[in-house]
Amino acid sequence: MRQVNVPAYFGPLFFSMLLFVSMATAQSSPAQPATFFISCSTLGGAGINIYYTGVFEIGAKPGPQPRTPVTLAVSPDNGKTWLWPAVFSQTVLDHFQAYLTQKGYKFLPGSASACDVKPTEAATKAAQHKRAYEGVGCSNCGKIVETGWKE
User: Fold this and answer.
1) 144: part of which helix (H) or strand (E)?
2) Alpha-carbon distances, residue 151 vs 25, 32, 55, 98, 120 (angstroms)
3) Of 133, 137, 134, 115, whose CA–CA distance to 124 is shortest?
4) Cα 112-116-119 angle, rounded to 5 deg
5) Is the peptide bond before 64 cis (omega within 30 degrees of 0)?
6) Dihedral angle at the C-alpha atoms of 53, 42, 125, 64, nearest 10 degrees?
7) Is 15 domain-assigned?
8) 3-state helix, strand, coil in the chain (%, to 5)
9) Is the pTM of the predicted complex or chain greater than 0.85?
10) 41 domain-assigned
11) Is 4 within a domain?
């Protein structure tokens, strides 16, 4: 049998890598079973319908505030809660608007502020309902259309 010479630094390096991987695995299974849900809409205008997505889970989990400016997290509520991995509301809205365009609907594009991201489906549905039916509204807009679209 042939013997292989291993540099002296390999042992500590190997064990530090093993420790790092085990820590990363432990952190990837958060203690909280929570996830986040989203609902977005387009904007309204004179005679233009306002389209709403369905409410759906985005697969992000709550996590700690990032320690570096370059991160895979995003906060939907100005730093109170962080989503891991980052799911940007504007990305969801862009996909929804592409769907509406494909269907030939006339709409005004929305921005990320036209999205509700909440930790429960019920809270997201309530926020969507409030925004659609209890908000200031648009006196000359078209109707509210709940499309049921989910990414």
Assistant:
1) strand 144-146
2) 28, 24, 10, 11, 17
3) 115
4) 130
5) no
6) 90
7) no
8) 35, 20, 45
9) no
10) yes
11) no
The count of structural domains within the chain is 1
How far, rounded to the nearest angstrom, does the alpha carbon of residue 22 sit from its chain's CA centroid?
27
Closest C-alpha among 45, 119, 46 to residue 77: 119
Going from the C-alpha of 132 to that of each of 94, 97, 103, 120, 147, the distances in angstroms are: 19, 17, 22, 18, 13
Amino acid at 63: G
- Above 50 in pLDDT, residue 142? yes
pLDDT at 11 over 90: no
- 81 within some domain: yes
- For residue 132 the two structure tokens come to 């659609």
Q: Which two tokens stand for residue 99?
A: 């769907």
User: What are the tens digits of pLDDT across the range 90-138?
Assistant: 889 999 999 999 999 999 998 888 899 888 899 999 999 999 998 766 7
Which residues span the domain enclosing 91? 32-146
Predicted confidence (pLDDT) per residue in 62-90, tens digit? 777 666 665 666 677 766 676 666 678 88
Tokens of 150: 């989910």
